[in-house]
Amino acid sequence: MDENTKVREKFMFPQNNLVVTSIDIQSVEPVDQRTRDSLQKSVQLAIEITTNSQEAAARLVLKLLWVLVIYYSVSLKKSLFEDLWQFYQNGWEFFNQILYAYYAFLSTID
Predict the structure, then answer these.
(1) Which residue of 10, 95, 99, 105 lies most exposed, with the fewest beta carbons within 10 A?
(2) How many CB atoms lie within 10 A of CB 67?
(3) What single string gives the DSSP state of each residue in 47-99?
(4) Domain map of the chain by residue range?
(5) Do the strands 18-20 and 11-13 form a parallel or antiparallel pair, or are they unpaired?
(6) What is the dihedral sign for C-alpha 96, 100, 105, 110?
(7) What is the pLDDT of residues 76-95, one digit of tens each?
């Protein structure tokens, strides 16, 4: 960097007139073992959080599908396509209504 904190096009060493025009950094690793361990733990935690989030989303979708299966096995007032279209249009509000109905149904089983 120059005096104005701009990245230079090239850098010259005055001792031997060596000119560096680009640098290819392939990896950066912390020198301190404690920092390395902390970074590795953070990455593992981030992966675990992402995995748990994806699994939770998949379980939620599975619950929705079971609710739809149960609902349509009990009542065939509308076509499945119509309710799926309504879910698409209304988003989470409709989804929450289905989950509420699902939990109400589960409470009658217990």
Answers:
(1) 10
(2) 20
(3) HHHHHHHHHHHHHHHHHHHHHHHHHHHH--SS-HHHHHHHHHHHTHHHHHHHH
(4) 28-109
(5) antiparallel
(6) positive
(7) 555 666 666 666 667 667 66
Cα separation, 91 vs 95, whole angstroms: 7
Average pLDDT in the chain: 79
Give which of 78, 61, 75, 70 is closest to 105, Cα–Cα.
70
* 3-state SS class at 20: strand
Distance from C-alpha of 38 to C-alpha of 44, rounded to nearest angstrom: 10
Can you give the pLDDT at residue 86?
67
Tell me the residue length of the chain: 110
Per the CB < 8 A criterion, the answer to whether 94 and 87 are in contact is yes
